[in-house]
TrEMBL record:
The keyword Acyltransferase applies. GO terms for molecular function: acyltransferase activity, transferring groups other than amino-acyl groups. Keywords: Acyltransferase, Transferase. This is GNAT family N-acetyltransferase. Signal peptide: none annotated. Residues 1-135 form the N-acetyltransferase domain. The keyword Acyltransferase applies.
Length: 135
């Protein structure tokens, strides 16, 4: 397993396959993709998990975190999230947060994130804002 910085374009296929397979491909592209940092996990030569980080002062939001369905549960996403937390420390990020699908909140809690009281719906899915304060 290798974790490395990738381009926004590298993330799009996995974002589409995992997050929004029934939407048009362009739905997974973000206007701000070019301003973000993007990371991926490779198993051999195959990209299997991706995440994007968008910083604003001493806060950062990660978005479009996706692991190929056929390899979920093998620790790729956990390793990538751990790597992202280390990157946040390098950039002096004090608050790392995301809009988590409510059904996946337990995954983030295991990684040290806590639910906030902010929730919302998007395209029929329930979300909760989760955060982790970094030292």
């Amino acid at each position: 397993m290798e974790i490395r910085q990738i381009t926004a374009k590298d993330t799009w296929a996995i974002r589409h396959q995992v997050m929004w397979p029934n939407k048009p491909f362009d739905y997974v592209k973000l206007e701000e993709d070019e301003q973000g940092l993007h990371f991926g996990v490779c198993d051999g030569n195959k990209l299997v998990s991706v995440i994007s980080l968008f910083m604003d002062g001493d806060e950062a939001q990660f978005r479009k975190f996706a692991t190929r369905t056929e390899v979920q549960g093998r620790g790729y996403g956990t390793a990538l999230l751990r790597h992202l937390a280390n990157e946040a420390r390098i950039y002096a990020i004090r608050r790392l947060w995301c809009n988590a699908r409510t059904a996946k909140a337990a995954f983030y809690e295991k990684a040290g994130f806590r639910k906030t009281d902010r929730t919302f719906k998007k395209d029929g899915m329930d979300y909760v804002v989760m955060e982790k304060l970094t030292p």
